[in-house]
Every structure is written in structure tokens, then in C-alpha cells.
Amino acid sequence: MKKILLIEDERSMARFIELELTHESFAVQIASDGYGGLDLALRDEWDVILLDLMLPGIDGLEVCRRIRAIKPTPIIMLTARDSVTDRVHGLDSGADDYLPKPFAIEELLARIRVIIRRQELLGEEKRSTLAFHELTVDLDAMEVRRREQLIELTKREYGLLLAFMQNPNRVLSRETLLDKVWGYESVVDTNVVDVYVRYLRNKIDESGEPSYIQTQRGIGYVMKR
Ligand code: CA
To answer: Which of 44, 158, 224, 225 would be 153's cystine partner, CB 3.0–4.6 Å?
Structure first.
């Protein structure tokens, strides 16, 4: 049974979501404020955390950052606010997805299923290390190195690097990368891929050497040497 932590202070909303999720055979626990939610999020293992933005105690963004500093548990942010800035803040704080209220419960369920499926695929693909020339990824520790030097990557940059390292010398379209790294997500478009490829190159490439990730104009990117 998949476990879901729901951090939501509005009792009727929390109760409604709990009933629907329970009906879909998820095990649900509710926390009704920021500190309580954070405590449960860190103390136990969850398949997905549903996190309201406006919470008493500490708000959802801060809860998200604090969870993310310690654990990779998937987080879907639920919020009454729906501006581009709020979405960006939500995703920047480490949330995996963002769903503005009011939402159809079917949409929430669909997004939960997608996240769980993605986690399961990641689990299946899991091998202890990946290597490409001077780059190595320790999949268990989630550590990336060039020769012996540790490279700090954000979660998305790491996901993007994995997509390339699992497909060396194969051209990956921006759509494919978007799908692999961001998954089902209505808020991003393929330009995001270009931005993150740039971030990633800045971190993994050495100045004066050709980039590990080369642009295939009009198509996408390829990791080659
Ligand atoms: Ca609230």
C-alpha cells in the first residue's frame, strides 16, 4: 500500500482528499500545520507528500525546502494561489509538481500515479554506478564526480545528467528530455530543457574542453566525447 502524507490545514479539504485517496487504496495521514507536517515528513517514509502552501506555523515553501534539504520524497504542492511566480517559487523550493486549487480530484490522482510510476521506474533502472569518460554517478549516494572531484547538482540537473548518462551517444530530443526529467507537468515547456542543459554544462564541463553535451540543432542534445 502506497503511503501519502497530506499537509493541509483546511479540515474539510483534508477530509475530502483523505476519503478520495483512501478509496483509491492509498494509506493517508494528515498533518494540519507546517511543523507537524515537517516532523512527519522527516520521521517516516512516504511515497508522495501533498503539501498545502498556506499553513499555520511555517508555510508550505519553507516546509518543502526543509524536507528537500534532507530527503528526496516526491512533493506535490497544492495551493489556492496560481500566479507564474508562485509556481516558480514552488518548483524552485524543490516541489516535483504544482496543482492550483480548486482542482478536480481526478487530476490530483493522475499526478500522484505519474509520480509513483516515475519513482518505480527510477528504482528499476537503479544500478550502483554509471560512468562516461571522466564522469561517474553513484546512484545510491546520488553523487556525481568528474575524476575524483565532487560536483554539486540540483535535483533537476541530476535528473537531466542521468538521462544523458543512461543514453550515451544517442540524440535525445528536448521533448524526450522533458518527459524523462520533468514527467507529466503542465507548467514547463521545452525551453526549460535548454536552460537546464546550460546549467549542467557549466557544472560538468571543463573550460577549454569540448562540452560533454553537444547540441544537435533543431533536434535536441547528445552526450558524446
Ligand atoms: Ca491552507
So the answer is: 158
**Taking the domains of the chain in order of start, what are their residue ranges?**
3-126, 129-223
Cα(9) to ligand 1 centroid in Å equals 5
Tens of pLDDT, residue by residue, the chain (225 residues): 999 999 999 999 999 999 999 999 999 999 999 999 999 999 988 999 999 999 999 999 999 999 988 888 999 999 876 677 777 777 777 899 989 888 999 999 999 999 998 888 877 665 578 889 889 998 888 999 998 899 999 999 999 999 999 999 999 999 899 888 988 665 678 888 999 999 999 999 998 889 999 999 989 999 998
CA of 77 to the centre of ligand 1 (A): 11
Q: Are 87 and 98 in contact (CB under 8 A)?
A: yes
Q: What fold is seen in the domain 3-126? A: Rossmann fold (3.40.50)
Q: Is the pTM of this model over 0.70?
A: no
Is CATH 3.30.1360.120 what the domain over 129-223 is classified as, yes or no?
Answer: no
Please name the amino acid found at residue 182.
W
**Alpha carbon of 55 to ligand 1 centroid (Å):** 5
